[in-house]
Design a protein that fits this description.
mainly beta; 32 strands; 5-stranded antiparallel beta sheet; 2 domains; Methylamine Dehydrogenase, Chain H
Length: 494
């Protein structure tokens, strides 16, 4: 009797595998499977590492702007004074590829940024934020350096009851910052205009804000981003852009918004239902209602300034004489003998001219005394409403005559004014600090300009981190109002 082999059934035969092992094909398949498992494991591990690193990059970028935001918030809540500068990273200090793409250097907007205040102990604090070249570069082919945001705080003790002293310290509060997306700027109101029942203002960065009636869309200016002068008509608003083109919103039925083809415009004016543009070569264009010939300006030349009234248009030429077209029902065009004029304004039915040595002349309707300007002096700018006239004096105060039915002439206590505008029944003043005041008819909230001020400082901090093959970005935008405690912060992670 044969001995029984362990693991083999009685009477059975030993299998092929037990007799001769694995075949080459089987070994190769096993090796391939093992390799796939190994490679898959490595890829999974690599993916996990990259994911963790990418998440870490996003966290790091976010922390950069958050840390900068902490200090910005702390300093802003105390700041009594703010100033901005514009610097440049010189081309010779840039790496080769970056220098080739930026032969004039890289402009740094708004830096150094300086904040200052006196604390409760009498210490005079000055904080200076500077954007300097850092140790990292942008994660793309241009190789331009990222920036560091540095904060330098100096406190000078001026309290005579204490030992005078000075403390100073500098720290890096932001790294990996994109110099092209990090910057700051003040955004005060730089110009105002008043229409029939609405008021508009342009800010230093080209945006436009409005108050008052919007029945015809005359305040739909939120998308305007590159405007430097505005004009307000009866029910429409006109904006002059930096490139000499013109935009318009509001009532259109009379064609007053047909300005899309205008170019080389240096000044705009808006009447009740028409729009006027002054070209750089001294010629004038006009569109809109022309029943009284108020758009008949095609033959004008050598014009230095234009004004648009209710139904007439006025032009001041380079020699100080005045021309006018349109309605003359009230004598508003009787300006042919005016000389030495420096500025003109057109009201509903009257025309006003600023003469030599701050004197003022007027022609046209005078039923409310709006032309009673003969005794004015030291005036630097004039504005004309429907039935009232306003003059800005050299000392920043105002005078006004004409209808005061809505209080539109109650400007005697205004000070620090640098520009004035007259609507149909209201008056608007732009102060030297960028704030705006208004009096007069307010049925449509055309005098509610308080929300435009105080003018904040806008600061953007953008961080870019790239250690995982893709960029992680974080951006914070701050609207800073010194001492007001209302800093707003919007953070966007990309």
């Amino acid at each position: 009797m044969k001995p029984r082999v362990k693991g083999v059934p009685s009477g059975g035969n030993v299998g092929v595998r037990a007799g001769r092992g694995f075949s080459m094909v089987e070994l190769l398949v096993a090796l391939a499977l093992s390799t796939l498992i190994l490679v898959g494991g490595v890829e999974i591990l690599r993916y996990m590492v990259l994911t963790v690193r990418a998440n870490g990059d996003e966290t790091l970028a976010s922390l950069q702007v958050q840390y900068a935001g902490f200090w910005i918030n702390e300093d802003t809540l105390q700041a009594e004074r703010v100033s901005v500068g514009n610097g440049t990273w010189p081309a010779e200090q840039l790496p080769g590829p970056c220098r080739e793409r930026n032969p004039d250097g890289i402009e740094i907007f708004g830096f150094p940024l300086t904040l200052g205040w006196v604390d409760g102990d009498g210490g005079n604090n000055t904080v200076v934020y500077s954007l300097v070249m850092g140790n990292y570069t942008l994660p793309d082919e241009n190789g331009c350096p990222l920036a560091q945001l540095r904060r330098n705080h100096e406190c000078l003790n001026q309290d005579l009851d204490r030992d005078p002293g000075k403390s100073q310290g500098e720290s890096v509060i932001g790294d990996y910052l994109d110099p092209g997306a990090t910057g700051c700027y003040l955004n005060p109101v730089i110009g105002v205009a008043a229409g029939e029942y609405h008021t508009v203002a342009v800010k230093s960065r080209g945006i436009v804000v409005g108050a008052g009636a919007n029945d015809d869309g005359q305040r739909d200016v939120a998308t305007w981003m590159s405007v430097f002068q505005v004009a307000a008509g009866g029910y429409h608003t006109v904006g002059l852009e930096w490139d000499g083109t013109v935009v318009a919103v509001g009532r259109y039925q009379e064609g007053q918004r047909h300005v899309s083809g205008w170019t080389d415009i240096v000044r705009v004016a808006a009447g009740m239902y028409h729009t006027v543009g002054l070209r750089g070569n001294g010629t004038v264009v006009a569109v809109g209602l022309n029943d009284d010939g108020q758009c008949g300006v095609g033959i004008w030349t050598n014009i230095a300034q234009v004004a648009a009234g209710g139904y007439h248009t006025v032009g001041l030429d380079w020699h100080g004489t005045v021309v006018a077209v349109g309605s003359n029902a009230y004598g508003q065009r009787d300006v042919g003998d005016w000389t030495g004029i420096e500025q003109v304004a057109a009201g509903g039915y009257h025309t006003v001219g600023l003469g030599p040595f701050g004197t003022v002349v007027a022609a046209g309707g005078n039923e409310s005394g709006q032309c009673g300007v003969d005794t004015w002096g030291n005036v630097t700018q004039v504005a004309a409403g429907m039935y009232h006239t306003v003059g800005l004096r050299g000392n920043g105060t105002l005078v006004a005559v004409g209808s005061n039915a809505y209080g539109q002439c109650d400007v005697g206590n205004w000070t620090g004014i640098r520009q004035v505008a007259a609507g149909a029944y209201h008056t608007v003043g732009l102060r030297s600090d960028g704030t705006v005041v208004a009096v007069g008819r307010n049925d449509h909230e055309e005098c509610d300009t308080g929300s435009w001020t105080p003018a904040p400082l806008t600061l953007a901090v953008a961080a870019t981190v790239s250690r995982s093959g893709r960029s992680a970005n974080a951006t914070s935008v701050y609207q800073i109002t010194p001492r007001a405690g209302n800093v707003t912060w919007v953070q966007v992670l990309q």
